[in-house]
Design a protein that fits this description.
One of its GO terms (molecular function) is triacylglycerol lipase activity. This is Acetyl esterase/lipase. Keywords: Hydrolase. The protein is α/β, with parallel strands linked by helices. It has 10 helices and 8 strands. It has one domain: Alpha/Beta hydrolase fold, catalytic domain (Rossmann fold, 3-Layer(aba) Sandwich). It is 42% helix and 16% strand. The chain has an 8-stranded mixed beta sheet, sandwiched between helices. A hairpin with a 2-residue loop joins strand 1 and strand 2. Helix 2 packs parallel to helix 3 and helix 4 packs across helix 5. The longest helix has 16 residues. The protein is globular.
Length: 298
């Protein structure tokens, strides 16, 4: 298939799932089954561990370096797990040689904001105990992409050094849902609309104050690590990514924004099926690797 045929096939598969939410338990089970049915990147092996007092999936590539990658999964802070995050994490591990950790941070509504941020910061603190900050990479998708930026802000506020670089895929950076694309891209997005996003907000950050506090789009981003932002042009979170990149640039952060035409939310998850996804992950891996010191295979 050519690229457009690949995009059409992915869009059709996503649209078949619909935009209506079930119960929290149904959404968790369905998402877990869907993502974990996809294999990890070729050659990457996984085992269970812990990080920052939370479960984590550790991922290793054959050509391992001293680099460590912390990956924060998507799922609107309500669904997803270390296992669902492992697929995209493994793709970055394969491209960087890092030892990856996909973190099982606490989910809402049982643990609303700021539970996820606290867990991400605890995991990052533990990594710093054994790894220099310059050898650490951070990445995440969707809510996990927003959580990556929230982590970088929290680390700066705690007086911790920034990692070498960060990459976020379709970041959910504004839980107040003020981006124009939430309405203008609703017909194009096969996965989400405003009602679907609000379902997650009500569970993670139900008050107006909490929703704003949980939104890194409104944070002071000065002093953060170099940041890569990738987003699909056909998704309601397009403006989250664009405004996040603009705010980072305004705060003197080194930032690269890539918007893929005709592509849906976290299209990178479809690597091996979608050439656009493979290319985007190649660029993400190169972005992260370029900001590392010279590594030595072990």
């Amino acid at each position: 298939m050519n690229r457009q045929q690949q995009r059409d096939a992915i869009r059709a598969a996503l649209a078949a799932s619909g935009k209506e939410q079930g119960t929290t338990e149904q959404e968790r089970a369905g998402f877990e089954q869907f993502v974990t049915s996809m294999p990890l990147a070729e050659g990457v092996v996984a085992d269970d561990g812990t990080l920052g007092g939370r479960p984590a999936v550790r991922l290793r590539a054959p050509d391992q370096s001293r680099t460590v990658l912390l990956y924060l999964h998507g799922g609107g802070y309500v669904i997803g797990s270390a296992r669902t995050g492992a697929r995209l994490a493994s793709a970055l591990v394969a491209r960087t040689g890092a030892t990856g950790y996909s973190l099982d941070y606490r989910l809402a509504p049982e643990h609303p904001f700021p539970g996820a941020v606290e867990d991400a910061l605890a995991a990052y603190r533990e990594l710093l105990e054994s790894t220099p900050a310059g050898d650490i990479l951070v990445a995440g998708d969707s809510a996990g992409g927003g959580l990556v930026v929230a982590l970088l802000v929290a680390a700066r506020e705690a007086g911790l050094p920034q990692p070498a670089a960060a990459a976020v895929f379709s970041p959910w950076a504004d839980l107040t849902l003020s981006g124009d694309s939430i309405r203008t891209r609703a017909a194009a997005d096969p996965l989400f609309d405003e009602a679907a996003l609000r379902w997650y907000v009500e569970r993670y950050a139900p008050s107006a104050d909490a929703a704003r506090a949980a939104s890194p789009i409104f944070a002071d981003l000065s002093g953060l690590a170099p940041l890569l932002v990738q987003v699909g042009a056909d998704e309601v979170l397009l403006d989250d990514a664009v405004r996040l990149a603009a705010r980072a640039a305004a705060h003197d952060v080194e930032v690269t924004l890539e918007a893929g035409p005709g592509l849906p939310h976290v299209y990178q998850l479809n690597y091996g099926l979608l050439d656009d996804a493979d290319d985007a992950l190649d660029r993400a891996g190169a972005f992260l690797a370029r900001r590392l010191p010279a590594t030595v295979a072990v």
